[in-house]
Structure formats: C-alpha cells, structure tokens
C-alpha cells in the first residue's frame, strides 16, 4: 500500500513537472485498455508509461480477459512486425518502406503496452504467457518495458531515414530489450 501511495505521488509530481499528459491516439480510451485513474500513456513519456503499470487498479472478470486478449494480440502484432523488419534487413536490397511501416507499428504498440499489464491479468486470470513475476517485481518490469518503448521509438525514428546500418543497429538494440524482458517475464505459450 505504501509503495502504491509513493508511486501515485511520484506520478503526480512527474505530471506536474512536465505540464501534464499530452493528448495522442495512445491516450484514446478505446486504444488504452487500462481505463483507470492513472495518467494516460504517451509515446514520449517513459516516466508516465512506467507509472501506469505501478498505479493501475487491479481488474478482474471479463475486463481482465479483454485486456489479456488485447495484450496477446498486441504482442503477436509486434512479433509479426519484427519478422518483417528482420526479413527486410537481411535482404540484399531492403524494402525500407516496409521497415518504416513495421517500425512505426511496433513503436505505436509499445506505447499501448503500458496498459496491458494491470494487476489481475496474470496466469491466475487465464491463459497467458505473462509470468506472475511481472507483478512481483514491478519496478524491474517497468524499467524493462520503458527500455523497450524507448528503443522502439528510436528504431522508428531511425527507420525514417535511409541509413541501413543505423537501422540495423537500432533494430538490434530493440531486440535486446525484448529479450531482456521475455527471458525473465514471459513463458512460452503453445496455441
């Protein structure tokens, strides 16, 4: 309880310091499944994104299942877009338009991911690859999620250019953030 109060106070202080949350598609109620009193996720606010997970209200029942489904679909889409980027960057002549589109989609979904892990959406709620350690080690999980979000935005920004080696480097950086989180917080799911 004390940790939640500290996290809430920190979130309020962060919002006050930066002038409040920015309005974006990521803040749209339908796009942000958290639908709670925590500050909305923005693509440019790592601290705010981190606080979303820390202060999110627990969910249950149909709401938990709906969020879990959105999380699963979002992660599947991130994986598919990752494959597009890998395929193109491994090609002799990468289709940079495809890389840009996939990188932008990953960056967009990474921002939404802050609302995908409220308490009550772990293995006890239903079939999920999310390990209970996510909610047991929130601070570490939030740091890893924030690192992924930052690297996804960096990849998307770099992909707007034509520097293939730089895009490959950013893609590798993002892959490292995915692996760091998945190694600790994701169990294999068999569909």
UniProtKB/TrEMBL annotation:
Region (Disordered): 24-44
Alphabetical list of InterPro entries matching this protein: Cyt_c/b562, Cyt_c_II, Cyt_c_prime_subgr
Biased composition (Polar residues): 33-44
Alphabetical list of SUPFAM superfamilies matching this protein: Cytochromes
Pfam families reported in the protein's UniProt record: Cytochrom_C_2 (PF01322)
Protein name from the UniProt record: Cytochrome c
Native source species: Sphingomonas hankyongi
